[in-house]
């Protein structure tokens, strides 16, 4: 039973038409201890060192005492209200003897590293840490997503890719949302923009959101290899590991394929699965990702044709896939029972345990494949018949029987008539001992006719 809060959330999601939010995780904040090589924020007895040749933007939230600070040649501090630095004349109690601590390099952090992003359905979910699981391609911002960099934060991200630009719906930086191409382009050319974004590809905003209630393709398949280059796959110990579309690694779990009709809404169905199944204690450890994918249908399981969109539900349980199989079975059963109300025409699943289920109403892909194959055969027959009727293609019906007379091909007028030579004026021939001698005969060879050479026999 959905409470008032859940109903409001569901209503907002249905109206949001697949507007997912992707938040960048790393930062270059001064107060983040993971940004320092000693694993601690420098105190008043320490020497603070930034690499001289590195370009960096550092957000400072509060006031800090230092013994000495070595600055980069090109960099900036973004000071929060009341933040700053001061140098102590003596020693700071509780700070130890003092060390030289270095700020870590952040140049290598890649936009297309799926481990560096968090995914949520709303900004509120981002703030509360209610993140969604996604396949690797969709963990990185898709073309219809809103990208969020934390408000009180600085960062550095390498946007290099094989494309000249990376389109997204919007980008939020330091609390300001950019959804205008010209405005964001102006920000990227500013000092802060150049320090935070670097690489060969430019981020572009203003891409329209996904207007299809059934979902839209992410668009990151073109960068699949780049995304997967930063992913390390663990060995699987289940019976039949599965590879979801858009994922870099095989997984132990289950994959559900949902076939849909007009009226299907991806966001509302995602919420239905969450409230009916994922809230149950037995499925607490489950990771579930849902997205629209395009899969090529195969005629007789071999010949690809007619790519068709469908909904992929990837389920991982971190074990051998038994929990995923149980959940997949329940979801497919629900889809078959209520599919007419949800816009679902069929559902099937595969599990890494080796189990599977057929699609509701029979295997639609196989039926489509057979129909398409028969249609091609009929079309080819009709084309051949038309070509024969028009005389373009001829069939020779004078085919002799086996053992019948041999076909000697065309007649040779020189040798098929024994008396022909005597009938030709100017030619004389005598037959002697089964041989023929000829006088006054010459032949023209068109290859050597240029020299008009006579060959006398």
Automatic annotation (TrEMBL):
Its chief place of residence is membrane
Could you state one GO biological process linked to this protein? receptor-mediated endocytosis
From the record, give the transmembrane residue ranges.
364-388
Compartments annotated for it: namely:
Cell membrane
Q: Which Pfam families match?
A: Amnionless (PF14828)
Question: Where does the record locate the signal sequence feature?
Answer: 1-19
Q: Does the keyword Cell membrane apply?
A: yes
- GO CC annotations on file: apical plasma membrane; endocytic vesicle
| Protein keywords | Cell membrane, Membrane, Protein transport, Signal, Transmembrane, Transmembrane helix, Transport
Q: How does it sit in the membrane?
A: Single-pass type I membrane protein
Q: What is this protein called?
A: Protein amnionless
């Amino acid at each position: 039973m959905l409470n008032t809060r859940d109903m409001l959330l569901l209503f907002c999601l249905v109206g949001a038409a697949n507007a997912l939010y992707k938040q960048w995780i790393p930062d270059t904040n001064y107060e983040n201890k993971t940004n320092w090589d000693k694993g601690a924020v420098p105190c008043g007895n320490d020497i603070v060192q930034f690499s001289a040749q590195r370009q960096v933007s550092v957000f400072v939230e509060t006031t800090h005492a230092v013994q000495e600070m070595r600055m980069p040649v090109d960099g900036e501090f973004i000071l929060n209200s009341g933040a700053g630095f001061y140098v102590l004349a003596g020693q700071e109690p509780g700070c130890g003897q003092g060390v030289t601590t270095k700020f870590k390099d952040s140049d290598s952090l890649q936009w297309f590293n799926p481990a560096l992003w968090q995914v949520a359905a709303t900004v509120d979910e981002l703030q509360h840490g209610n993140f969604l699981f996604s396949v690797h391609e969709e963990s990185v911002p898709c073309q219809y997503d809103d990208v969020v960099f934390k408000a009180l934060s600085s960062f550095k991200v390498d946007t290099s890719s094989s494309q000249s630009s990376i389109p997204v719906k919007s980008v939020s930086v330091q609390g300001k949302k950019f959804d205008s191409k010209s405005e964001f382009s102006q920000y990227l050319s500013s000092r802060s923009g150049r320090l935070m974004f670097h690489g060969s590809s430019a981020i572009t905003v203003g891409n329209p959101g996904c207007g299809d209630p059934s979902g839209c393709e992410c668009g990151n398949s073109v960068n699949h290899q780049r995304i997967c280059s930063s992913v390390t796959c663990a060995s699987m110990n289940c019976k039949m590991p599965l590879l979801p579309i858009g994922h870099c690694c095989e997984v132990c779990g289950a994959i559900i394929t949902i076939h849909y009709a007009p009226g299907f809404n991806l966001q509302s169905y995602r919420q239905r699965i969450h409230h009916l199944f994922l809230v149950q204690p037995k499925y607490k450890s489950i990771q579930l990702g849902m997205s629209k994918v395009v899969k090529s249908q195969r005629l007789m399981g071999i010949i690809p044709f007619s790519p068709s969109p469908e909904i992929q539900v990837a389920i991982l349980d971190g074990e051998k896939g038994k929990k995923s199989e149980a959940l997949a079975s329940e979801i497919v059963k629900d889809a078959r029972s209520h599919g007419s109300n949800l816009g679902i025409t069929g559902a099937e699943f595969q599990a890494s345990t080796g189990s599977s289920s057929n699609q509701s109403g029979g295997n639609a892909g196989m039926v489509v494949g057979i129909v398409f194959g028969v249609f091609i055969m009929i079309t080819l027959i009709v084309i051949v018949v038309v070509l024969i009727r028009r005389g373009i293609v001829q069939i020779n019906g004078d085919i002799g029987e086996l053992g019948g007379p041999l076909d000697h091909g065309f007649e040779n007028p020189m040798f098929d008539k024994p008396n022909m030579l005597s009938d030709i004026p100017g030619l004389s021939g005598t037959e002697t001992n089964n041989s023929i001698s000829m006088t006054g005969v010459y032949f023209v060879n068109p290859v050597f006719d240029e020299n008009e050479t006579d060959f006398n026999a």
